[in-house]
Amino acid sequence: MSGSRPRDEDVAAVEAANEALYAALEAGDLDAMTDVWVSGADADDVQGAVCVHPGWPLLSGRAAVLRSYALIMANTDYIQFFLTDVTVEIHGDVALVTCTENILSGGEAGEDGEPGPLLGGKVVATNLFRRTSDGWRLWSHHGSPVLTGGGDEDE
């Protein structure tokens, strides 16, 4: 591992950066989301910001990634993440975080204007962070839905 900081300090910093991603999304705070992602030359080079939301095509570059989060935030009334199975590995100036996103979100409002039902889902996520002069910043996010079988399917 490069650098002079102790490993425990790096792990804690990466965990905090990962938590900031989900806190920004829960709060619908695009400014906070902007701070989470790599910026400048780190964001738009060949290995720049990349994101795959479940069911979406690959998004490359900081602008495209942040537009996707703006769209998600604009169309999500309520979302909460309960992260489980979180692992952090650090290799030099790159950190890999894997986790299960247990997601609770609000469904569409009823015709009477009442809030819709809460819906749950699971996504397995891989988040790559890069150490920058501004600290650990998200470089890549990839989320894959965990599909659950229906009662009629053969196992």
From TrEMBL:
PANTHER family hit by this protein: NUCLEAR TRANSPORT FACTOR 2 (NTF2) FAMILY PROTEIN
One Pfam family matching this protein: SnoaL_3
Protein's recorded name: Nuclear transport factor 2 family protein
Domain SnoaL-like: 14-146
Top-level taxon in the UniProt lineage: Bacteria
